[in-house]
Amino acid sequence: MPVIDVQHDLDSRTLTMTAEFAAGVERVWQIYADPRQLEKIWGPPTYPATVVDHDLVPGGLVTYFMTSPEGEKFAGYWKITAVDAPHSFSFEDGFADLDFKPNTDLPVSQNVYTFTEQDSRTRAVYVSTFETAEGLQKVLEMGVVEGATAAINQIDALIAS
């Protein structure tokens, strides 16, 4: 399984997930850079994603929705703040309504995804920082660790295909 460590710290308001993939950095980067590949791994297997907008450049926007097994849709967005392809990107991640208007009742996080290559493998470190400890606690209660782990663990199968 790709996810090898998960840490959350309410004092620093961070959630950090570390994963390793049997592919080089360029291959892992392409999963995030290509909206059709991103759809295959963004969201747990039972909540497939549909990427609507995908502009992975500083100032760009990525919008998406996930569809539950019952057909209910849950939308979100990334506001891209920095890109250093293929090594890292940063973004604001938030929940939205189906018109992609931010849902201010749910927490927003600042994220940094970093990819480093070691022996033809990639180590990915995903760090999410929330404005408040309560915001982090809320997404933990919503199942973010389980959902994100299931989503990230789909990357190996995509790489192998």
UniProtKB/TrEMBL annotation:
Domain of life: Bacteria
InterPro entries for the chain: ASHA1/2-like_C, START-like_dom_sf
Domain Activator of Hsp90 ATPase homologue 1/2-like C-terminal: 23-159
Family designation: Belongs to the AHA1 family.
Designated name of the protein: SRPBCC domain-containing protein
Organism field: Nocardia jiangxiensis
